[in-house]
Amino acid sequence: SGSSAAAPLPEEDCMKLNPSFLGIALSSLLAIDLWASKRLGVCAGEGSAWGSARPLMKVIEVSGHGIPWLLGTFYGLCQSDSSAAREVLLNLLFALLLDLVLVAAVKGLVKRRRPTHNKMDMFVTISVDRYSFPSGHATRAALVCRFILHHLVLAVPLRVLVVLWALIVGISRIMLGRHNVTDVLFGLLLGYALYSVVEYCWLSPLSAPALFALW
């Protein structure tokens, strides 16, 4: 009847009808992220707006891949005859391995799928690479960039090139459609912070004599 009071909504229905400000903000951010990532994925396929630049983007992709960096660092470590160089290279190897483990753990925890416009034709992938967050290439690029700038004496133009390389690797992930914008931004921040962990845990003949005895 018209005089009877309306029954109150269950608490969970009230929450759905009155979402929190944080929930709205996160949903809006996710929508913007997906929209911007799709718009910027101009090299995601041969028929994309910048499809002709896709081969170049894939070369940049390989330059930030973990396998070339691991093999190159290990080879340099084996060939080096300087104790100072071996110390730097051993810590770079430690940093690269730590990066792989951390990124794989976060990807497995978050389990964010790659953008729908991505083509799964990446260079040497593993099972966890089907996930998108964070970008391992971006994390590695930021980590290696900080490492090189702190431990190699380079002229200013070369230092600028190293920074540009790290940024281009991150941008290429979005252009190829491999990652969303937030995947790359978080990856760059994570790699930047990860270097501080490496510096704090720096391996030396005093802190890790067993490792240096192998070389």
UniProtKB/TrEMBL annotation:
Domain of life of the source: Eukaryota
GO biological process: lipid metabolic process
Subcellular localization: Endoplasmic reticulum membrane; Nucleus inner membrane
Protein EC: 3.6.1.68
Top-level EC class: hydrolase
GO cellular component: endoplasmic reticulum membrane; nuclear inner membrane
UniProt-listed InterPro entries: PAP2/HPO (IPR000326), PAP2/HPO_sf (IPR036938)
Keyword Lipid metabolism: yes
Reaction(s) catalysed (UniProt annotation): 1,2-dihexadecanoyl-sn-glycero-3-phosphate + H2O = 1,2-dihexadecanoyl-sn-glycerol + phosphate; (2E,6E)-farnesyl diphosphate + H2O = (2E,6E)-farnesyl phosphate + phosphate + H(+); presqualene phosphate + H2O = presqualene alcohol + phosphate; (2E)-geranyl diphosphate + H2O = (2E)-geranyl phosphate + phosphate + H(+)
Main location: endoplasmic reticulum
Domain Phosphatidic acid phosphatase type 2/haloperoxidase: start-end pairs: 88-199
Ranges that cross the membrane: 89-110, 147-172, 184-203
Any one Pfam family match given in the protein's UniProt record, by short name: PAP2
Topology of the protein relative to the lipid bilayer: Multi-pass membrane protein
GO molecular function, one term: sphingosine-1-phosphate phosphatase activity
Protein name: Polyisoprenoid diphosphate/phosphate phosphohydrolase PLPP6
Gene name tied to this protein: Plpp6
